[in-house]
Specification:
Number of helices: 9
Number of strands: 6
Strand content: 5-15%
Distance between the termini: 73 Å
Largest sheet: 3 strands, antiparallel
Radius of gyration: 30 Å
Structural class: mainly alpha
Order of helices and strands: EEEHEEHHEHHHHHH
Length: about 280
């Protein structure tokens, strides 16, 4: 058996095109040997000549072509994933053939629960970051009613919360409370990212706003919002309170009410059961 050959098969090396210029005087592989010229066919026009190396057969799948670094200061293009925010729920809605996802309101726990509560909360956070301003606003409560209504309606376009959200005061209070926390968490996250840049010249800090935050908002947070005396006082009190917590949250994105509801039910409840309650 010859090494490199599969049993019962003779693997053939295939070269696309015809070599039209292969100097015989200079051995291939020598430092001064030019690359052979291969005839390449194009779908956009007539055949043309291009310099290309010979194709080499391999047992492994070849990766798509990427530009390799050719010297100092050059870099290889990096494949990056495109925007993914909101794609998960879009897949769910397509699978449900356009039907909205139902989110149950637990009256006893005073919280949203059920199978789709986490996607609904994620969608609420996405809309807050997309539609809510940061400048001259300290919390969700300070936002204009038109802004808050636009955020909540964007979520209601994909989720049915409580069956009759617009006439359900408890459901509205629950969603507003959740939005209040998400807006607060967003600003906290921005401050933590700012702290990672502390020590750099201020111009460099200005030049690195968080993705999705305008330069004007970023500068306002640094120069005004986080320097405010009342903010620093609340921040110090919050840090002290968090240090005294007797337990830590270990359920990821699921809140305590959601975990409690899941423990009580023992299983996911269908949409029909939700509506019958």
């Amino acid at each position: 058996m010859v090494l490199g050959l599969k049993t019962g098969q003779l693997r053939k090396k295939i070269v696309t095109g015809t070599i039209t210029d292969s100097p015989a005087a200079i051995p291939l592989g020598s430092p001064v040997a030019p690359s052979p010229v291969v005839l390449v066919r194009s779908n956009d026009g007539p055949s043309h000549h291009a310099t290309s190396p010979l194709l080499v057969d391999s047992d492994e799948t070849q990766a798509p072509f990427e530009t390799q670094p050719s010297g100092v200061g050059t870099s290889k293009p990096i494949r990056v994933r495109g925007p993914t925010l909101g794609k998960g729920i879009q897949k769910i809605i397509r699978a449900k053939k356009g039907e909205k996802c139902y989110v149950y309101i637990d009256r006893a726990l005073n919280a949203m629960t059920g199978k789709y509560v986490t996607p609904a909360t994620t969608e609420l956070g996405i809309q807050i970051k997309s539609l809510c301003p940061l400048k001259d606003v300290k919390s969700w409560l300070d936002l204009a009613e038109t802004t808050k209504s636009a955020v909540i309606q964007s979520v209601l376009d994909k989720f049915e919360i409580g069956g009759d959200f617009h006439n359900d005061l408890q459901a509205q209070k629950i969603v507003n409370k959740k939005a209040y926390g998400l807006y607060k968490d967003w600003r906290y996250t921005l401050k933590q990212e700012f702290k990672l840049l502390e020590g750099l010249p201020i111009d460099e800090i200005y030049a690195h706003p968080t993705l999705g935050v305008s330069l004007d908002d970023w500068k306002h947070l640094i120069d005004v919002a986080w320097q405010d005396v009342s903010h620093q006082k609340r921040s110090k009190a919050g840090k002290s309170n968090r240090s005294q917590l007797p337990y830590n949250h270990t359920n990821g994105s699921r809140s305590f009410p959601i975990v409690m509801a899941a423990m009580n039910s023992g299983a996911h409840i269908s949409k029909s059961v939700y509506k019958s309650v």
